[in-house]
Amino acid sequence: METHNYLFTYRSLACGLIAAFLFAMLSPIARAEERLPLKFDHQVQTCASAESVWADFQLALVDSSQAQIWPSDLSKVEGEAKLGAKIYVTYGNGWFAPTYSYELIEYGGQAFRYEAREDHPFIGGARVSVESLPDGSGSILKWDGLYLIKESDARGRNYFNSFRRDFFEQLDQNLKTFEKTNCDIYSSAENITDLLTSLVSPVLRGLSER
Prior knowledge:
single chain; alpha+beta; seven-stranded antiparallel sheet; 48% helix; 28% strand
């Protein structure tokens, strides 16, 4: 009788361990199936060179407050600009400003790819690249990615969609400001304006003296 009880106990324990093992193996799959994809793809063309835009993004990865293009009013970045580095992004301002971390899983060749770490509510990441235009007139900034978010997290989806819209709108505006000091076309326009002013001013002075 005792032997039977021991065998029953061992069988129960073995079944419990197997069930726990299967749950641990299958639960990540179940969690992945409960998540919905959030894709985004943003491209913007600029007269600034790929080298100057890339240099500004390198600054942003270390300290976004020192960069011109990054929308620092919406999020702040601290980290290192190198492969495998961790970067920390604080979203928003005020009393509620959560910070999440990412890892740079690709870096170099004027491009980087980041992936959300365990503390982030989303799964996934994005790739940012800067490419020179074939005609040499500037460059194109590409930012595309994919996140997986829990199906039940409607608030998270709404926040992400709102933040994404505001972030890229502000980024495009900052890029326009960046162009004024980093594009040859603006320098040429200023030179032409100065030339016209130097030619017209003496004529205007002469007319006023008559």
